Amino acid sequence: MNQIATGKFIAGCRKEKGLTQAQLAEKLNITDRAVSKWETGKCMPDSSIMLALCNILDVTVNELLTGERIEMDHYEEKVNENLIELKRKDENNMNKNAIIATIYTIAMVIGIMVCCICDIAVSGALTWSLIVLSAVLVTWIVSFPVILLGKKGVRSHLHF
């Protein structure tokens, strides 16, 4: 998927419909700056409004993602290409999230160890550090799925 090609495609389809960026934005309940960013290739439309955008522009999601009109004889090929690209991006995000989650966990463990060492050095036993340990553990349990899985982690963690 080429964001610049998709942006030019969105701009062309919008103009074919006789819509300004502001009018398209109003129909989607977003800002015209968001539409401008799509059309310049700086970002892609959010998946939550992609179907509405396609309906307004009278294009399919695959045409939108490809950045061109797709003839029916090439439609299945383009669908497969788009699905592979989306899966590849999702896998890359999961790998990045796994690295961030690992670093986050290591930082939490180091923080717990420092608190315990300081507590033992000051009072000779584990006293106040157990409170910190509990707070850090609860924070880690709540935040780890969010860091690892992003929005999907929030939904699955909260059972939505």
Q: Care to describe what's here?
A:
This protein has 160 residues and is mainly alpha-helical. It contains eight helices and no strands. Helix content is 78%, strand content 0%. α7 crosses α8. It has two domains: 3-70, 434 Repressor (Amino-terminal Domain); 91-157. The longest helix is centred in the middle third of the chain and has 49 residues, at 75-123. The model has no long low-confidence stretch (mean pLDDT 85).
Strands, helices and their partners?
Blueprint: H1 3-16, H2 21-28, H3 32-39, H4 47-57, H5 61-66, H6 75-123, H7 129-149, H8 151-157
Helix pairs in contact: 2-3, 6-7, 7-8
Q: Which H/E pattern describes the elements?
A: HHHHHHHH
Note the overall shape: elongated
Task: Please write the CATH class name of the largest domain.
Answer: Mainly Alpha
CATH fold description of the largest domain: 434 Repressor (Amino-terminal Domain)
Largest sheet: none
Q: Going by CATH, what is the homologous superfamily of the largest domain? A: lambda repressor-like DNA-binding domains
Average pLDDT rating: 85
Cα radius of gyration in angstroms: 24 Å
Number of H/I helices: 8
Helix/strand-derived category reads: mainly alpha
Which runs of at least 5 residues are low in confidence (pLDDT < 50)?
none
Q: N- to C-terminal separation?
A: 30 Å
Q: How many strands appear in the DSSP assignment?
A: 0
